[in-house]
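Ticket #4471: structure export looks truncated?
Reporter: QA, pipeline team
Priority: medium

Steps to reproduce: submit the single chain below to the structure queue and open the exported record.
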Amino acid sequence: MLPTPGVAAELIQDYASTGLTLGPHPLALLRHHPGLSGLPTAETLIARGARRRVRYIGLVITRQRPGSAKGTVFLTLEDESGTLNVIVWPTLVERARAAVIHSRLLEVSGELQQQDGVTHLIAERLRDRSIWLGELAVRSRDFG
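Actual output as written to the record:
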């Protein structure tokens, strides 16, 4: 008999075949990684309210660069608790182009803003952490 696949193996297969999983979120499995030590979840950030400096990491699930936004890119990142909207101004888009376009797992440092129940993280620094996902095939939905 074949051995039962582990949680990580099932997660990789789920994403490879359907692009999602009904099991644990990939970030829930990575929380023990030293690079995520002390980083809050989306739910925690939103509950804490607006702050000058925050760091957050999440899977890139959408990228949008509307023509009317004059080069600004809007990202949606996801972790095991929910999603967080990220705004990347054109100057940072140019400096961190590879991370904006290609990252699957992105660490963002910046200012958390909240107004009228809407939360945005205004990116000041981006770091592509996709290597931490190994062979996990996470794909974002990209809109022009």
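Status: closed, not a bug. The export was complete when the record was re-opened. Leaving a note from the reviewer for reference: Strands lie at 51-64, 73-79, 82-88, 105-115, 118-128, 141-143.
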